[in-house]
Amino acid sequence: MTTNTPRLRLAYRPHVLARAVMDDLLRRERLLAQGGFILLALMVPTFIALGIDDRTLNGISVWIKPLKFQFSVALYLLTLAWFVGALPEETRRGRTVRILVNLALAASTFEIGYIALQAARGLASHYNVADPFHQLMYTLMGIGAVTLTAASPALAVLLLRHRPQAWSTAFWLSVLLGLTLTFMLGVGSGSVLSAGNGHWIGGVRTDATGVPVFGWSRTGGDLRVAHFLGLHALQIMPVLGLVAERWARGRTASFIVCAAALAYGAATLFVFVQALRGIPFIPA
């Protein structure tokens, strides 16, 4: 008698699952997936630099910012790759998707490259306008960030025109809303962030005593909280969509998704206003 148990166990091994996910993403949109995996791989030398380089900026290692941006942008590119893979093949191979992919990769390469370069030099990449060169680079960083984030609503339009047949209405709505909120909330909070001279509002202007991993200020307002929530709506909303379609069906699930999107936007706006008032997200 034969059994499928060994095969089932094999499928749940972490390295097998990771390889299956990688293969699926590469099949869906190879260039975006490769870009995301390269950024994840670059985290290894960045970790090494973090361990051997004792220079600090704003109270933390100069390599913390490149590390966080590498992970965040990698996750963004991989998410886009998965969504692009849901489009019809003729659309994926079309000019619009090629432009979207190339702009996203170019913008992310510039952003990560400059942030890493400045870290290696022991200098700030953000809010550094000390001379004409850094003023120009900071302006280009803003343009690059908007270009990268604009890939989200562009992809939402394509998915609106070419709804994947395998997706339920609730999940489809959650993806569309997530992509749209990422641009609206991410660029909206980011424009305020870039207009000032730092992400702190009141409190001590240091990241050394911030929330672990994220670094958000615990002594005053921090605009990065709302920016984080905005930029990651394209991952959070689809998860909420999956939950909704398992709890409910049809219009009820779609209503839950729309209500969740409104609540998510309101929550992001709330923490944004709280930051402007100088109130920390997680007080010390």
Written description of the protein model:
With 284 residues, the chain is mainly α. It has 2 domains: 12-163, Four Helix Bundle (Hemerythrin (Met), subunit A), CATH 1.20.120; 167-284, no CATH class. The chain has 12 helices and 4 strands; from the N terminus they run H-H-H-E-E-H-H-H-H-H-H-E-E-H-H-H. It has helices at residues 5-11, 14-28, 30-52, 64-84, 89-92, 95-121, 132-149, 151-161, 169-195, 224-231, 233-247, 250-276, and strands at residues 56-57, 60-61, 200-201, 221-222. A hairpin with a 2-residue loop joins strand 1 (56-57) and strand 2 (60-61). It is globular and about 50 Å long. Mean pLDDT is 92; it is low at 1-11.
Q: What is the CATH C level class of the largest domain, in words?
A: Mainly Alpha
* Mean pLDDT over all positions: 92
Number of helices: 12
**Strand percentage:** under 5%
Tell me, briefly, the overall form.
globular
